[in-house]
Amino acid sequence: MNYQIVFESENILYVKLNKELINDYLVMINDPDVANKISHEIRTYTYEDELNWVTLKLKENAICFSMIEKRTGDFIGNIEIMEINNNIGELGISITPKKQNQHFGTESIKALLKYAYEKLNLDGMELNVYSTNLKAIHCYEKNGFIIDGPGKTDEDIHMINKK
Questions:
Q1: Mean pLDDT of 106-123
Q2: Full residue range of the structural domain in which residue 132 is found
Q3: Global confidence as pTM
Q4: For position 82, which CATH number holds?
Q5: Which of 5, 15, 73, 78 is the most buried if burial means most Cβ atoms within 10 Å?
Q6: 93, 105 contact by CB (below 8 A)
Q7: Vertex 97, ends 93 and 102: CA angle to 5°?
Q8: How do residues 56-105 score in pLDDT, each as one tens digit?
């Protein structure tokens, strides 16, 4: 597959979103274990839904990357700076089920923080995570995020990371 590589870390290539990866995106986003950790409104996404999402993200020149494992060429997941307010970016990440529990989350967050601070010159990053998603919280803490209080909903906590 022909990827447009934006940056890389030890085991991961960070590439522009790619319409050829839509089937991989669908496997990830429609998996119940992934969906219930990233959305309050779980639904089944179609190929057309994902095509529209990719098209929109590319048109917006969104700071959203697909992660590809260097060793195998396998799709790992997506990582994104969803929005930037007051020079603070909001982190979003999802990892496809077969690539979870392999330390890709820790590596990719570290790499995105470096990209955000060195290339985009952001002052900090923030995120919201379900308080029940203990593995994710641990991963964020390993990358220097600290709990900053309640999140957007009663089930979320807000975490921050400063440059």
A1: 97
A2: 5-162
A3: 0.92
A4: 3.40.630.30
A5: 78
A6: yes
A7: 80
A8: 999 999 999 999 999 999 999 999 999 999 999 999 999 999 999 999 99
CA 41 to chain centroid: 18
Rounded CA-CA distance 100/103 in Å is 7
Rg (CA), the chain: 15
* Rounded Cα–Cα distance for residues 46 and 30 (Å): 9
Question: CB neighbours (10 Å) of residue 46?
Answer: 11
Tokens of 138: 């641990």
Give me the count of residues in the chain: 163
Residue 42 has pLDDT above 80, yes or no: no
The 8 Å CB, 24+ separation contacts for 33-40 are 33/97, 34/94, 34/95, 34/96, 34/97, 37/94, 37/130, 37/133, 37/136, 38/92, 38/94, 40/153, 40/155
Q: What is the largest CA-CA distance in the chain?
A: 42
For the cut 90, the answer to whether the pLDDT of residue 121 exceeds it is yes
For the chain, give percent helix, strand, coil, nearest 5: 35, 35, 30
Would you say 80 and 63 are in contact if contact means Cβ atoms under 8 Å apart?
Answer: yes
Q: Nearest Cα to 131, choosing from 110, 108, 153, 105? A: 153
